[in-house]
């Protein structure tokens, strides 16, 4: 199983910006907030915006993910 958090932490530093060209449900965006990074999310299907915005606005920077917690 692929882990977004592990990828972000091994390939970027806190405060850096991560680009996600296929944002979908914004899993990468949520993890960047939780890991202290900034993100630029791109999505061509406007229907995903209604899913992305609530997920992103409910996250707090620097809050650790609990074991098994969904992103």
Quick structural summary:
By secondary structure, the chain is of the alpha+beta class. Helices cover 35% and strands 11% of the residues.
Query: What share of residues are in beta strands?
Result: 5-15%
Q: Overall pLDDT, averaged?
A: 84
Main pleated sheet: 2 strands, parallel
Reading the helices and strands in chain order gives HEHEH
Q: Which residue ranges are poorly predicted, with pLDDT under 50 across at least 5 consecutive positions?
A: none
Number of strands: 2
Widest sheet: strand ordering: 1-2
Helix count equals 3
Distance N terminus to C terminus?
14 Å
Percent helix range: 25-40%
- Shape by Cα distribution: globular
Rg on CA atoms, Å: 12 Å
Class derived from helix and strand content: alpha+beta
Tell me what you see in this structure.
The chain is 35% helix and 11% strand. The longest helix has 9 residues, at 49-57. It is α+β, with helices and mostly antiparallel strands and 71 residues long. It has a two-stranded parallel sheet with strand order 1-2. The model has no long low-confidence stretch (mean pLDDT 84). The chain has 3 helices and 2 strands; from the N terminus they run H-E-H-E-H.
Topology:
Layout: H1 4-11, E1 17-20, H2 27-34, E2 38-41, H3 49-57
Parallel strand pairs: 1-2
What distinguishing features does this structure have?
71 residues, alpha+beta, two-stranded parallel ribbon, 3 helices, 35% helix, globular
